Amino acid sequence: ARSVNLAVIPGDGIGPEVVAEGLKVLHAAVPGDVKFEITEYDLGARRWHRTGETLPDTVLEELRGHDAILLGAIGDPGVPSGVLERGLLLKLRFAFDHHVNLRPARLYPGVTSPIQARLDERGPDYRVDFVVVREGTEGPYVGNGGSLRTGTPHEIATEVSVNTAYGIERVVRDAYRRASARERKKLTLVHKTNVLVHAGGLWYRIFQRVGEEFPDVTTDYLHVDAATIFLTTDPGRFDVIVTDNLFGDIITDLAAAVTGGIGLAASGNLDVSGANPSMFEPVHGSAPDIAGTGKADPTATVLSVALMLEHLELTDAARRIEAAVAADLAERGGQQRSTSQIGDAIAARVAG
Ligand code: IPM
Ligand code: MN
Predict the structure, then answer these.
(1) Is 85 in the pocket of ligand 1 (CB under 6 A)?
(2) Can you tell me which residues bind substrate (predicted)?
(3) pTM beyond cutoff 0.90
(4) pLDDT tens by residue, 98-120
């Protein structure tokens, strides 16, 4: 028997609704001899409104003691922009050294892409199935910068992107490993080396050097602007993409849009070393406009649960969830189902 300590942060808006379905599917998928000990943490906009706290240090330390974290979504329009992003979400990613932000982008059969006509032109065997390895602890996200002559017509704001050889190398090596384990074994570096010569140069050199350890992996480089063109004209050309924190943020929303929308996009914030708990969350936000209506699609959370199980080496359970989601999507069509109906349907397939 094995026991897993899971921290759950349902959060705000649709967060608790999609997390409930994610846990439903989790329980249907894990074998009987694996026991999930779940502790819920009340963090997010509601707590901030009530107490003014984002992430107290005592809570951070409690979270550290878990094997993994499942997060729904945080935020509501009443919280000033940046407070929860920096005080909670990014604080967790930085405190737990989540250097690999893993974001798969797969167009499941039965799901219609907004660029479907274009994809159809490429023939019946054309597949979109890639994964973005987004750096998660550096870049402009570190919050290094400031403002001079604030509020004057001569104000100057800087937002410094921090890129360390250590930080780049570990995420690049992880991306090579993932590429090497996949069928096509192709890795694309996305950056903007023609303009961001300092950071871009470092990324490019490390990408080349680490590549020598992976002679089986085919490599490719794209400037981020060109990458957006390919993502919307020929996304099937990608296998694994590695990129920095900000470019990764932007292109993974685009990748999600192209593969059926944000309702399906899963993510894992990984400390690959295993020293800290990794955190799994749908890419979407708290969608306060549809909270409580049963309209939220829990699929992104369910797929995030599958990523979590894979990370916990419960590979079989992860595969079964992915297969159940694929089967559900293949038959979904235009059906209008509620959040819990979708969760029930996927859980039933997993159990069946
Ligand atoms: C995401 C989000 C976050 C990010 C925000 C909410 C801080 O957009 O997870 O992609 O920029 O990383
Ligand atoms: Mn984002």
Answers:
(1) yes
(2) 93, 103, 134, 225
(3) yes
(4) 999 999 999 999 999 999 999 99
